[in-house]
Structure formats: C-alpha cells, structure tokens
C-alpha cells in the first residue's frame, strides 16, 4: 500500500540502519512500491561484539535484507571517511536515518552519544548539502519519567533517551535557520512486527511471548501486568509515518503511536487466542521497579495534523497480521 503521492521512482534514498528492524522494512517498502527507486542500504551489521550488558553492539542481520536488490554498504556511521564518501558518491533525495544504538539498557554513554547524536548531525549536514529531506528515528524513551507524552515534556532517564533528546535539540537548532529541506523526527513508541526477531532480547514482547507460547512455556508476566500499559505500534503504521514525513506540512518532531495504551496481559491474551494455545500465565516480581515505564500513550494530534498520519492497526490487528511470521520464525529460527 502506498502512503504518499510522491513518486519515489528514480529518487536516491539513503536508509541507515537498513539491516535492522525498521530500516529493512523501509527498504522493502520502497523496493516493492517503487521498483526504480535507487535505494542505498547502510548498516554496520552485527560483528558478534557485545556491550557490557552482554547484548550485541549492533543488531543488523543479513536475513532482514534477503531479497533486497538495492545497494548494500556495511560501514559505521561514526566513520568520517564513510560520510565523506557518501557525500561525494551520491546525491540523495531522502535520508531515512534509523541507525542507532537501539538498546535502551546500554551503559556506554560515550559510544551512545557519538553514534546516536554526533553521527546524526553529520548526516544532517549531508542532507542539507544534497537538499535531501531528512526523516530520523527519535523515541518515546525521551519521555522517560514524564507522565505527559507530548512534545515538550521529555524527561529521559537513561543514556539512550538522553541521546534521542539531543537529536531532537539538534533538529530544532537547524530548523531555526533557512536550510531548504524538511526535517522530521519520529518518536516511535513500542514497535512490533516483521523483521524484529534479530534484535534478540530487545525485540518486542509480542514476538517473545509468541515464541514462549509456541514452545509450550507458560508466558511469564510481571506482577500487575494488567496495569502496565504501553502504546504498542505495528510496523506498518511506523512505515506509514515515515513515508508521510517525506512531505510534512511542518518540520518538527512527532509522536508515532496508536494513541492507545494496552497491557502486556492483553498481548498474551491475543497471542493465545490467535495461536489457539491456552497455556496459562505465570506472574513474576518486576525487577525493574524504579526504572520502568508503567504507562505510555502517545498524543498523536500534531502527527495527524502535520503529517496526515492515521494509525490503522489496533493491537489485535497488528498481532493478527504478524502471527504467521511469528510461527514461521519459531519453525526456522527458534526450534
Ligand atoms: N523498535 C522500537 O520499538 C523503537 C522505538 C523507538 C525508537 N526506535 C529507534 O528506531 C531506530 C530503528 O530501530 P530498530 O528497532 O530498527 O533497531 P535495530 O537495532 O534493529 O536497528 C538499528 C540498526 O542500526 C545499525 N547500527 C547500529 N549502530 C550503527 C553504526 N554505528 N553504524 C551503522 N549502523 C549501525 C544496527 O546494526 C541495526 O541494524 C533506532 O534509531 C531506534 O533507536 C525504535
């Protein structure tokens, strides 16, 4: 389904983080809808190296790009030579910047800020030189301890959330000048859907619970999970927001959620119903109390108004659209 009147055929589109969850879905959106688009997929791919939290340094996986026909570049956005090369070798029309340390529990603040903040500004400078509209991934993690999920009420409580606030600040600074391009930051809430599996433990609870249930393990929920509410958003709506952000009424930073908060308990109930497996639920103490978001719900008024964004997937719809892939992954990757 096309989300815009723009003809992306013959446009040169840079997608960073292209071997990751959201980036790879963007690659296929363009490939499928605009066969003559010139798509440059950039990612550093996984190396096996880990951070001090034991998780991989980057989650990019070639399997997310199986079937992709565009140009693939394996490189690090912190590499200044790469940036020079990109600037000189191409003239981009659009940049979708998804590359980041996406793991919210990473403690290495130095690399977090370098990768998420400084490299973003470097890419933004290329966008301005090329007159390419910039669409980048911010995050609901910017709200952190806030209980108001509206632009201007950010209160990050980890280095990741901080880095995304700094990206938004850079955006506001550039937008004060007459730069001749649009910049749109998208604060994604909790995204789930196809091609997230290779994020391992940082993949959404939708796929993780799905695989627990298929494995005949009783899904483990934190105590009080019926009251832990989040705005879960299906990947297709995130793609819609990115495409609509190419031609905004107004540059700026926007929330991307459904506008509805649902519980982790709901996820398990819907999955058990879709999978036709009722293997109960187990409740365990929440080890993250104190550093945990108990409620998120995007205010999407300005996203609707300025991007023309309209979420199409309730949690039930998203899980239904995703369930076959959850089963396929279980057969091919988990079992
Ligand atoms: N998935 C979510 O729920 C969610 C929510 C809010 C914000 N976001 C943001 O959306 C963007 C995409 O997230 P995702 O879920 O697809 O995560 P992801 O980890 O699957 O994708 C990020 C990609 O960036 C690549 N990358 C990391 N460091 C890099 C570097 N130095 N150079 C080049 N590539 C690098 C990784 O290999 C990975 O493929 C990220 O910016 C993330 O912070 C995601």
Provide a descriptive summary of the structure in words.
There is one protein chain. The protein is of the alpha/beta class. It has a domain at 12-199 and 233-257 and 298-312: NAD(P)-binding Rossmann-like Domain (Rossmann fold), CATH 3.40.50. 36% of the residues lie in helices and 16% in strands. The protein contains nine helices and 13 strands. The chain has helices spanning 21-33, 80-89, 109-130, 159-175, 205-214, 235-244, 264-275, 301-307, 315-334, and strands at 12-16, 38-43, 71-74, 94-97, 133-139, 183-188, 190-192, 220-222, 229-230, 232-234, 252-256, 262-263, 282-284. The strands form four sheets. A seven-stranded parallel beta sheet has the order 3-2-1-4-5-6-11, with helices on both faces. α1 (21-33) crosses α6 (235-244). It is globular and about 55 Å long. The protein starts with 11 loop residues before the first strand and ends with a helix. The site of nicotinamide-adenine-dinucleotide has 28 residues, from α1, β5 and β7. Nicotinamide-adenine-dinucleotide (NAD) is lined by residues 17, 19-23, 43-45, 58-60, 76-78, 98-102, 115, 137, 139-140, 188, 190-191, 199.
């Amino acid at each position: 389904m096309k989300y815009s009147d723009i003809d992306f055929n013959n446009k040169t589109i840079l997608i960073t983080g292209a071997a990751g969850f959201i980036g790879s879905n963007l690659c296929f959106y363009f490939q499928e809808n605009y066969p003559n688009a010139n798509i440059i997929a950039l990612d550093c791919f996984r190396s096996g190296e880990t951070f001090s939290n034991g998780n991989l340094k980057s989650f990019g996986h070639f399997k997310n790009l199986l079937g992709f026909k565009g140009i693939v570049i394996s490189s690090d956005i912190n590499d200044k030579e790469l940036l020079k090369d990109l600037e000189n070798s191409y003239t981009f029309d659009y940049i979708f910047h998804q590359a980041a340390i996406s793991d919210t529990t990473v403690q290495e603040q130095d690399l977090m800020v370098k990768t998420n903040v400084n490299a973003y500004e470097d890419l933004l400078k290329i966008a301005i030189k090329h007159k390419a509209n910039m669409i980048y991934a911010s995050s609901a993690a910017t709200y952190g301890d806030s209980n108001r999920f509206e632009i201007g009420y950010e209160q990050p409580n980890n280095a990741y959330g901080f880095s995304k606030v700094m990206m938004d600040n850079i955006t506001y600074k550039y937008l004060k000048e007459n730069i001749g391009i649009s910049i749109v930051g998208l604060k994604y809430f909790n995204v789930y859907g196809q091609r997230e599996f290779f994020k391992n433990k940082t993949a959404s609870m939708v796929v993780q619970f799905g695989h627990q249930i298929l494995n005949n393990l009783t899904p483990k929920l934190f105590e009080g999970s019926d009251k832990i509410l989040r705005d879960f958003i299906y990947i297709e709506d995130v793609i819609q927001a990115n495409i609509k952000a190419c031609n905004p009424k107004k540059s700026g930073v926007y929330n991307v959620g459904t506008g509805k908060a649902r519980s982790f308990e709901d996820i398990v109930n819907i999955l058990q119903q879709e999978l036709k497996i009722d293997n109960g639920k187990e409740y365990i103490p929440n080890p993250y109390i104190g550093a945990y978001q108990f409620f998120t719900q995007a205010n999407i008024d300005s996203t609707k108004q300025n991007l023309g964004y309209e979420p199409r997937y309730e949690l039930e719809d998203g899980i239904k659209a995703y369930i076959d892939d959850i089963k396929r992954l279980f057969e091919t990757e988990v079992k």
